[in-house]
Here is the input.
Amino acid sequence: MALPFDKASAAPIRRQVDSDTACLLLHGLTGAPARDLWFLADYLTGHGISIVAPLLTGHGKTWKELELATAESWQNDALTGLDEVRTMGKIVFVAGLSMGGTLTLYLGEHRPEIAGLITINAPVYLDDPKLRLVPILRHFQRSQPKAPPDVADRDAMLPDLGFNSMEAVYQFERLMQGVRGDLGMVTQPLLSFRSKQDHVVPPRNAEYILDHVNSHIKSVITLERSYHCATIDYDRERIAASIEQFITLVRTQQV
Here is the structure.
């Protein structure tokens, strides 16, 4: 039985600290900020980086709310979050888990002023042949059961919807298709993480992304101990420390 979302687990995260650097954090499909990004937010703010992590449209309640979300609404959420971070008057980075990483690439394609991008198990394509049926199936089947959140650390208690909206899956496919076609527009420094064992997103996405962006600084880190929801899995501290080091490196090169 899925642990339901509540006000705490679905809450957006907004923390401003006294520094010149901020990071927009974006959660994944069927996730939420305080579920997926709490450790990363705590770590980065503890190292002098302000954080904004919005709740994406349709998330944090049940799968029925997801039916109302579109690729465009998630893109607008990401753009609104970016604008909120920019009001802090700081140098801005963007990091995202899973679909949040796809949205991170979308922002990189359309907002070249972003200082750097970080993706964590982000897809621009999925291998599942059943997805080809979703554009038609969504008109006859509103939802489908979903597996529990993909983590190796079974002590990680994750609120989850239990079901996924077929319409949301279709909209996610639309989002990936658009981002995939425009990857060449990404020129910012890019750090990508991939889990060696990811039961949701093919790990080869990381190489595909790096092969198709035009970033001069780009690298992949492979996570050996975590599954798809890596930001709260065994490698969470490695991810957070690597992101902080990446931000410091990019900032140093900009001076």
User: Anything to note?
Assistant: Strands lie at 13-15, 21-26, 50-53, 91-97, 116-120, 143-145, 163-165, 190-195, 218-223. The longest strand covers residues 91-97.
